[in-house]
Structure formats: structure tokens, C-alpha cells
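Structure, all two chains, one model.
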Amino acid sequence: MATLLIEIGCEELPAGACREALAQLPGVAERALGVAPSRILITPRRLAVLVDDAPAKTADHWLKGPPVNMAEKAAAGFAKRHGVAVESLQERDGFLGVEVPGKPLAEVLPEQVDALVNGLAFSKTMRWDDSGLRSPRPLRWTLAMVDAETIVGDTTFGHRFTSGPVKVPDASAYLETLRAAGVEPDQDARRAQIVQSLDELGGWGDPNGVLEEVIFLVEHPLVIDGRFDERYLQLPRRVIETTIQHHIRAFPLGENRFAFVANGGDPDTVRGGLENVVGGRLEDASFTFERDVEVGLDGLAERLGAITFFAGAGSYADKTGRLPKLVEALGGGEAALEAARLAKADQASELVREFPALEGHVGAEYARLAGYPEAVSAAIDEHYLPDAADAPLPQTEAGRVLSAADKIDTLNVSFGLGHKPTGSRDPYGLRRAAIGLCRLAAEGNLVIPREQLEPEVREFVEERFEGLVDLPVEYVRAARRSEVRDLGSVARLARALAGLPDERFAPIHTAYTRSERLAEKEEGAAAELDPALLAEPAELEVAQAMERLDPQLEGSLEAGDFDAAVESAAEIGPALDRFFEEVLVMAEDKAVRANRLRLLLNVRDTLGKLGELSQIPR
Amino acid sequence: MNFQNMIAALQRYWAERGCVIMQPYHTELGAGTSNPATFIRVLDPSLKEWRAAYVEPVIRPTDGRYGENPFRFQHYFQYQVILKPAPEDVIDQYFGSLEALGIDLRKHDLRLVEDDWEQPTLGAWGLGWEVWSDGMEITQFTYFQQLGGIDLEVIPAEMTYGLERLALFLQGKESVFDLEWAPGVTWGDVYRENERQWSRYNYEEARVDVLERRFDEHEAEAGELLDKGLPLPAYDQVLKSSHAFNLLDARGAVSVTERAAYIGRVRKLARRFAQLYVGADGDAPD
């Protein structure tokens, strides 16, 4: 058994490419080498694979030749093709063949290295010379070793500035050789070092999640803390965080401190430079911030007429003008209305132009500075939430109302202009808006009247429940066809329907489905139910049950008690069962038949208040 | 090291590495890449080798801040190096240039951080990095893959130094206006009034009707020159139409929908130019 090392040297790979390599290398290496790697080591400048106990040669294998009974004709040709004497052919399971001995690892390694390089697939690649190779960044060296023997290449390279070409004495000494050359090759070790240093500094945060990227930005992590001038603390907190995290991938430490992960250097020198850079960025942001504050949030709101919401949909001033009506329809109070007037004002700010991801938050900070009540500022802050599938909902009632109003407007206007998402294309984020509405309704318990959504929008939005609610989609489809008035009730009704045990659901499902089928013969049905024509006990019982059930259902649905509604419907199940057993709907007597058809139609209409029950397969 | 000495050191360093020291172009450019010494030479399939370096003043009307913001300007300087083909040791050569400026590579934190480059109006893209020096972005480094919508046969490396940023770093100053340009003369002495007046022109005074007309004229002339087989003069008209668009943008005269249309018109010209220049058949793809 031998230790095998393969190292592919690169110019600095993007963190995303490092992660792709990390995910693929175990499988790719096993396919290329025929043995599972013991370690995968990745830095921005190298992809390395170590195998602790590689077989010193590849496995022997049996090369199958012609069947024994064809030996006379074919054996000589077969032997010649494979460069062996005919006499050396052996027989196995009725076939001639030859046992080909495995090759020494050193001999096959160059091919295996090529297979490994070619086996990786990256999402974004480039060319850099005329070799025809494609990779996320140029590949610059290869080192392949079996124990102390170098098979491909010559040296590895240590840290870009503090080291240079380095001989690896033995494949098994790869890690310590690199560590001595200023490189920590193990990504997990780098992560641990960084986290430990950050913990020592204390109070670190990573709101934008840059740690996993930083691990692949350095080979020699050196955590350096720095400070910026306290006067920049006047800036909105997230502006500071974004500046620190986005521009230099550093971590806020609270107050005016931050921590940066360098790749080496003299800490005091690097700190001085970093503080200058952060100071400069924050000075730039402050300059913008102060200009905005001078104009004030109300002043910014007045400029919205000049900013296009999107082509054909007027300006942000037009959008702002549409929001109050929606806010009222959603039951919003004074705070929500005031917030609606100011929600889009930050679109006119210079700071949002610099930090587009902070829309809403910037407006909220300006509202606070202008002395608006906290409920108004908070609503502005939160009204883009939820901005991702797992993002939190707005915390405040006004925030939820404003968020829903904004999304309804965007959806209604976009669909009105024919901008519907197609396939994966959704440039206006309409799917996200629709999912946001569903979550505001179902999880946030916001009453969103379905009538506020244009018919096409309503279909699109409610379809999102099919993926959001953890039920077979048919329950959602059934509930969507009910006449419940608000969006959240669609999900709640679907849950109530799914919660009914099958034996209780069966009778009403059957009654609904059969009545619906009979409804096709509607011209035969009487216009009104005539109680005088009801003769059979079973049909009388159903008629009476329906009279009780109809107002009961209405009441429960109105009160939002869907379990009670479903429960009360289920109660008439036995009566319906009996009806179908004992009563002949298509009676000889025309009037009786018409009356019974009418009764069934009433059953369908009443049960139909729970949705299109026939959608649910049984 | 003051601004002019920094430029002189870069000129000497790259001249020693076989670069032709070129001069800035004679019309407004948004980036040194648009200078024919880069764009056209890189595109030229018959030119297998080309190394050039030059200072380029870049004009970006929407970045003006009336000389009030010490980090934003409508006119600043890039130092552009183009090496075709990209040499194998190009990164070492680049870091060598920083050493030539007196930067101790072992004392500072120097890093190549992924930053891919794309210029839709030129139908151009490449992969590369921004170079960080103690967190300061001092250079954009790009391996061009496509220009004018055409895959390049020979891949070059482009290094674009942001001279003001580099000088902030070298001089340890906190404002570009305070940078020493020459002994006793600051960057602000030379350009601050320029920023005030040009910002006013770009944002307030440039005549929208004139610019709209100019855009149309430059576009039309570029088309005619391409028809007549004169790609080089046509290229200047493309650059001028692009600048007219940038000014219209600064004047706030371009709506979101119009913006896409303007960019599309410039891109179409750039692609037609590229197709004609490399002698490719057929119409430029969109």
C-alpha cells in the first residue's frame, strides 16, 4: 500500500468554484483513481486529493477472448491483437482469454490525473491559453506523488508572498510541508482557526453570511480587528454592516469595531490600511446619507413622480397613490396608512441607489430621524418581508398590512400589463410576491380578501398554496374552489378537509360527486324544492338535514371555524348514504324526479361551500 | 510616492517587460478597455502578440459629485496594461509592478478576489479578480473571453489599475483631493474645480435635445462608415454615441425602457464593428 497525492495548482479560484470542487472531488477522484480518497483539501490555489492506502498497482483483469469452440479460427488473431503468444491463452467458462496483470500506480497516474481534471464540472469556466482546457481560473501546476516518488510535476507552491516552490519529501508529508510554507490546506482547519479568532475577539456577527466564502479567500487566515470613527455610527446599522461585509468580507463586532480575515501580512500595517478603506467607504455613505437627511423623508416622497415603478405602470408616486385603498381593504389603521404614504420614499434616496438591498430599511431610518411614530417606521422597515421562502414575516400588524398591500398592487399591475412569470423567468419577482402573500395570510393570519386580487392574479397566488401547504395538492385545489372570502381561509379549509377521517369524509364526497354528475342533467331539475313531493323517509331526512346544515355551514365558514364546518357537513353523511341506497332518483314520475334532482343539486351547492370536493381522489 | 512618480514607475516597469507605452485616446471613454490599443488590438485575429500600457482618463458623468465627495469623480485615471497572449507568469508580473511601486508584498495583505467583468454595450466579458491591498480594491484583472460578441482566439490578460485608489493606499491619505500629484501640488489643486464645473454641466446644463441629436448622428455615421468598410473611423463614432448616452443618463433624460433601447443600439454597432473588423461573415447576432 502506498500514499498517493494529487495536487492541481490554480490561480485564485472563486469561493463558489472551491465549493463545487469540494462537492465533486470525492466521486470524481474515486472514478479516476479506482479508490476512494482519504482527504480532499481545497484552497483558492489548489485542489488536492490524498489517498492513504492506495494499491501499489492497479488490479489484474481477465481479458475475454473467443469461445473455446471457435479457437481454431479466432485464437491466433485474438492473441496477436493483445500481443501475447497463442499458447499462453487460458480457458475460463468456455472462453479463451488472458489474465492481464495490473500496472504499477506510477505508470497509470498521469492518465488518472488527466481523468480527474477532466472529471470536474464547474458552472462558470474560461480559457486562458491554447491548450483547450477550461476551468474557473487558469491551472498552473500539477503535482502527483506516490510516497516519496514524484510522478507528475516537480514541486508544490507555498504561500504566494511568504514562500515559493516547495519540494514535498513524501506524499504523506503534504500537510506539514504546506503548513511550514505558510498554507493551511485543510478548509475545515481554516474555518476552525477563523471562528476561534473571531470568538476570542467576541461579539462577532455574520448577518450577510460571508464566512463560508472567506474560508476560500485565504490560505493563511489571519484575523485582524479594526475600528472606524464613531461619527459613522449615525449611519443606519445595516448600511454599516453591508459596507463591512460586502466590500471587504469582514465581520461586524458591534459598535465601531470589525474583524477582517487577511491572508497574511503585518497586522498593524494591514489594520491601518483596512481602517482607511472602511473609513473611506463609510465617509462615502455618510456623504450620501447626510444629503438624503437634508432633503428629509417627506421631501424624498415628493420626488417619486420622477421615478418609474416599471415601464407602463407609471411612477412610484402612482404606486404610492394606489396603496391607501388596499391598506384600508386589508383593515390597516392609521400607522399602516401613514407608512403607505412614505413606504416608497427611499426609492428617491441616494443611499438606496448605493445600497439597493437596503430599500425599506433606509426609509425606516429616515422616518425615525423625522420623528414618525415607531409603528410607522417599523412598518416601512418590514414591508418587503418576507423576501425569501424562509425569510421571517413582518413583526408588526401595520408591517403585515403594508407588505400585503404592496405585493397585491405589484401583482395586479404586472399581470394587467401581461408580465406573467414563465418557466424560470420571473424578472419582477412575482412568484416571491405571491408566496409572500400566501404566507402573510396563512402564517401571519392577515385577512386578505380574495376579491382584492384580480381573477388571474388570484389563481396565480392561490396556486402557490399547493407548494406551501404540506398536504396533497388536491385538498388545496378543492378549497380554492370554495367561496371562503379570504386567502388564508383557503389553506385553513384545505387543512380541515384533510383532517377529516376517511370514513366520515366518504359519504359527503360521494354525495357531492354524484350530485355533481347529476347536475349535468340540470334541465330536468325543478327550479325549487317542493316539500310536498318528498315521499320517501330517506329523502325527507336529507331535505331536513340540508335545511339545518346550510345556515350552520355558512355560520361556521363566516366565523372561520373550518373544522366545525367540515364536521357539520360530515354529520349528514349517514343520511346521504341512506338516500342513495333507498331512493331512486330517476323516478318514473316526472315531477318527483325533477324534485329529487333539485334536492341533489341543493346538496351539491351546500357541500360545495366547502370547495370542489370531487378534486379530492378517494 | 506622488501621483506622477507612481505613473512614471508603472511606465518604466511595463516598458521593461516589452509593453508599447501608448497614450490616452482622443475622445471620451468610460474605461481604458475601450481605447483601440486594447479593444481593437485584442480583437484583431491576425495580431498574435500585443503588449501595451497607458494612462487613460475615464469619463463617467453619473459619478460626479461636484467636487464635494472625496471618493467620487466624473473624471479620474486608470492605468491600463494589456498582455496578449496572457503570459503564464502574468500574476507574478503584476505583483512585481506593485513591488516596483515600493509595496512590500509580505507586509501587506494582497489578494485576488473573484470579480468577473462584463460590458454589455461592447458585447464583452471576461473572468478575473479585483485585487485587494489591505482591503482596498486597487486593480481589476481580467482574462477576456469575448469582445464584440466574438470568442477570442488568443486570450489576453488585462490589468486596470485604479490610480487614485492605488495612490490613496501608497500615500496613506483619506481623501483623493489630498493626494500629492507633484511636489507641492495636490490632486485637488489640479482637478477639484474641474469636478465642480463638469458635474454642473453633466447633471444640469448639457442640452438634452442636442445630445439626443448627437447620439442619432453618431450612430448613423458609424453605420455608414461600416457600410463603406472603414471600421476604424466607425469605432470612434461608436465611442462618441456611447458618451452621448452617458451624458443623457446623467441628465436624467433616459427612462428605464429607453435605457435598454439605447444600450441595445450601441451594442449592435459594437458587434457590427467587431464582425467587420475580424472579417467574419454574416450579420452581427443580437
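The longest strand of chain B covers residues 136-147.
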